[in-house]
Amino acid sequence: MKSKDSTRGGAKAATTRGNGTVTLEMVAQAAGVSPSTVSRILNGTAVVNELKKQAVDDAIARLGFVPNPMARGLAGGRTLSIGVVTQAIDSPFYGAALRGIEDELDPAGYSPLYVSGHWNAAAEARCIEVLRSRRVDGIVVLTGRLTDQALKTCAKSLPVVVTGRSLKAPGLFSLNFDNCEGGRLATQHLIDLGHRRIAFISGDPEHPDAAERLRGYTLALESAGISFDPALVVPGEYHEVSGLLAVDRLIEARQGFTAIFAANDQMAFGAALGLTRRSLRVPDDVSLVGFDDLPTSMYAIPPLSTVHQPAYELGRLAAQAMLQLLAGDKPIVEVPLPRLIARESSRRLRG
Amino acid sequence: MKSKDSTRGGAKAATTRGNGTVTLEMVAQAAGVSPSTVSRILNGTAVVNELKKQAVDDAIARLGFVPNPMARGLAGGRTLSIGVVTQAIDSPFYGAALRGIEDELDPAGYSPLYVSGHWNAAAEARCIEVLRSRRVDGIVVLTGRLTDQALKTCAKSLPVVVTGRSLKAPGLFSLNFDNCEGGRLATQHLIDLGHRRIAFISGDPEHPDAAERLRGYTLALESAGISFDPALVVPGEYHEVSGLLAVDRLIEARQGFTAIFAANDQMAFGAALGLTRRSLRVPDDVSLVGFDDLPTSMYAIPPLSTVHQPAYELGRLAAQAMLQLLAGDKPIVEVPLPRLIARESSRRLRG
DNA sequence: CTGAAAGCGCTTACAG
DNA sequence: CTGAAAGCGCTTACAG
Lengths: 351, 351
Prior knowledge:
Two copies of one chain form a homodimer.
Chain A: H1 24-31, H2 35-43, H3 50-63, H4 69-76, E1 81-86, H5 92-105, E2 111-116, H6 121-133, E3 138-141, H7 148-155, E4 160-163, E5 172-175, H8 179-192, E6 198-202, H9 208-223, E7 233-235, H10 240-252, E8 259-262, H11 265-277, E9 287-292, E10 305-308, H12 311-326, E11 339-341
Parallel strand pairs in A: 1-2, 1-3, 3-4, 4-5, 6-7, 6-8, 8-9, 9-10
Antiparallel strand pairs in A: 10-11
Helix pairs in contact in A: 1-2, 1-3, 5-12, 8-9, 10-11
The first copy, chain A, binds a DNA duplex (16 and 16 nucleotides) through residues 6-9, 21, 23-25, 33-40, 42-43, 45-49, 52, 67-77.
């Protein structure tokens, strides 16, 4: 009796569901209560008699009942899943952030759904569509190139948390790392070491965080009374090869420089290789500072001086903010301040 | 008329769903057909009259209908999502594989659901549970420490694709990169360069792929008539710090060696730093070869010689195999052969 | 080829 | 505090 083995879907390949499936209804029956009661206990939606609760908990354990998230989603209007728009799931930087999100969401019963925007506004817009069609309960956007307006619009129908910019709107929470201060710190470090001709390999200035790092660079220069030389600023795209190319340009343009600040570690790695290729030693001939502090940066040769960006922590905080938004609270999270990690790629300018 | 604004779920925070939702039923009505027909067109489940199809397609476009995956899942017994058990979502190696999976699954309408096992059998078992409770249609396991038995059991109720081992079972497909051959290639490369005292920094030998790489190492040695010296094999754990420590051990044990083969690139990076710290130059004093060919390895200083492992491609293939399994077909995929990428960290032993 | 109907497994007003 | 009932938006045998 009670054969739950539906005949349909049988041909649907190895996707055997059937048999083993324990439903809430079965639990209710086993515990001698109504499905409603089981549901209420499951969700803590109402106070129920302690004895019944006991019986239900027993039945759940005994039968090994696991609620079906799809049924839950359909009936309850939520999926317990959070969309995460990331730029590249295989980026060394974002990887840590994703882990942070995962670690924070998991205990709350939510699952992340990752989609990659590939640093492309159109692709990101498509990501949002995919996530909406999957009916996620909220969306976390890690930096990216979506316009502020697009995010605000999205936030009208769904809670949104975005990192890498400062934005206020209903249903929207933004969480900004102080990239400007980070850029200032890195540059100041080099200035403190006696450098005055400091090249800057920038990220795409269209990107808020890249622009901010550049601003930090100019700020530090300014406060040290060093005049800004546009010839020392070379554009890059946050990849190793950008750093390599930038060094070539810098050297070929015969710009004298004794130090380089690269707007991220990956470009710093490329720059280090470029310098080596030109027989310039780091840090003996040129000091080098990066930004991000990737897990691998401490193992670079030489270990890279950089600005630590707490990617994992930022992921956790973003997820935390999302959970608060979902709970109807106004998120309060404190983003760690940037700090400089001086390692071996930077040294005092020799007189 | 037709107010779809359900009163329930209203207090559920910003999770506004309501209003905008276009349902299949609305499409059917707009097109003047039954919901069944719309469904059939959507799924290509049966041949329908061309005119009706036209009308339905129109209605879908006009209303901007997007099927609700949860309803679909509940009714159809599948979720169109594939669980992916990865070891660390932020690993440089697995990141590329995940992207491959994503790229392959996406056009087929499936979404990946990532969970991290952290190189821990118990955690991986939990991952499987999470995925089952989410009712994924299939599970892709990237390497990992689950026992063969556990995988086979899992495959009884769900199609499973696993990388990093060779295993045959109903509902299970395995996809193995030839780690042994890769290990042999790396070692042979060093032998060809004249090295005979070749140290090996291994991964955890409990792990099939690590064990295979070691086997490749011994094979190459053997065929070159070099006797295997256990003192030259140091255990590592696939992380940079393992490589660093291994070099320390090797040097302190006063094992003469002119080359090192590290079982993965991350350990090779650590080893390179360790050597540098001891004032040993790569490749002038010690040749170094890694395994994996991470995206960053070509930018290491010096650029790392290594065995290329097509992580992205492997991800795609695994996903492809899963799609075939889901379609009820026997997967046929061809795994690329390992190939050696000789860069600048290895050189001929000087007479 | 195509409808009407039942059902997937839950949740939630609605009445007690 | 707790049931009975309706409904979430689809899919799929079952009959035409």
